[in-house]
Amino acid sequence: MRPIQAKDPSAAAPPPVPRLTAHSDSADSDSAPRPDPPDEPARADAADAAHPARIRTAYGRQGPIGAGTPSGDLVEAVETVDADVPGAVGRALEQILTDRLARAGALDPLFAEELAGRVARFTLEGGKRTRSQLLWWSVRACGGDDEPAVVAALRIGAALELLQTCALVHDDLMDGSALRRGRPTLHTDLRNRYAGGAPADRAARFGEAAAVLAGDLALAWADDALAETALDPAVAALVRGVWGDMRTEMVAGQFLDLQGQLTSSRSRSQALRAAHLKSALYSVQRPLALGAALAGADGRTTRALCSAGRCVGMAFQLRDDLDDVFGDPHRTGKSRGDDIRNGKPTYLAALALARAEATGDRPALTVLERALGDEDLKPADLDEVRDVLVRTGARQAVEAKIDRLSARGLRHFDGALPDTAAKARLRGLLTSQAASRAEDGGPPERVSPPPAGPSAGTTAPGTRR
User: Fold this and answer.
1) Of the candidates 431, 398, 417, which has an alpha carbon nearest to the alpha carbon of residue 312?
2) 366-392: per-residue pLDDT in tens?
3) Quick count: other Cβ atoms within 10 Å of Cβ 365?
4) What are the CA-CA distances from residue 293 to residues 231, 301, 465 (Å)?
């Protein structure tokens, strides 16, 4: 298949955004920024100030990222993207972020290096691009392979990765996490950057405040990438509606999560509701819906994909909860037991508490009540929690719920689309979402059955088993 070329920019691309002049200390430095003159050489200086070479080295490039390629022109053959979706989305990100770093450098080199550069590197150097892969294969499974759908899918896939950066940076800050992807979290990195030149409490506060700005910047760049994507008006309305809902759902879910921590909520239905809003929709259902919209799928297909994504997304979050407690930190890239230390109202913890209360298991209740929310929880104490989660049957019950949700989601999916290679790839992705990504086995299962208690299949109100 011939490479897909972007349409005539004059017909489809959004109008160019004026470049800003670099900050000056002259007397009129407080005046409004002005567009650069056409031949102004400051653009290259601004890009250098943002140090894009630090991004390039991760990809082995010799020249500027996206050099010679007009903004918005993503020249990829469908087969090339199919063979390496994360790589294709990464190339789209490189192009978008090089432009953003150049603009940041024009505003202020320190801002570009210390904050914008960290956001760019965080986005480019980690993650499996799962959400953008789901979007891509949703487009392909729904029959999208024309130029507008392919170009838009790569750009919006890149926007999803930037939105993920926002979510992770803010989530790590709210949870007080020290590690992400095996490296210091962004607020920790910024704190360490200034730890030697300021009192410890002020450096920590700076790191936290700057991380808020970093997440905001990633969200702004994500919105920019979406807004600058050429879309048919009808498709644009659908895509922007899904995008807007997704952002609000993420915030609502995060708020419920925080409120549950504060109030020490034990409600299983509230835990599932928070997980649904905070993660399930955003991680699976909304990427599938975006892909269906870009491909022009009909309402029946879109609804079936959304139903599949809702079930698989919940299974994904429940698996993440298990991996937080039982996972191997070398594989998760995160500290083990952060959900327990932060007192997160996960379905796993709520179910264990309910089972211990129902059976009068006072030792288990004591362990859980002492551990949940204990920021100084020791490894030995976490081992006790893990043992309780197994002994009460909570771990086994959550595993069973994951299996049921996954099976239900795949039933919705199988009837939604004709059998194609793209459908098979998308089905494989959905299946993998519920699989453990980091399990090390945990404490051994007890030979004796767990105490009788609430049904292992306890579900949220209104959810069919």
Assistant:
1) 431
2) 999 999 999 899 999 999 999 999 999
3) 18
4) 11, 10, 30
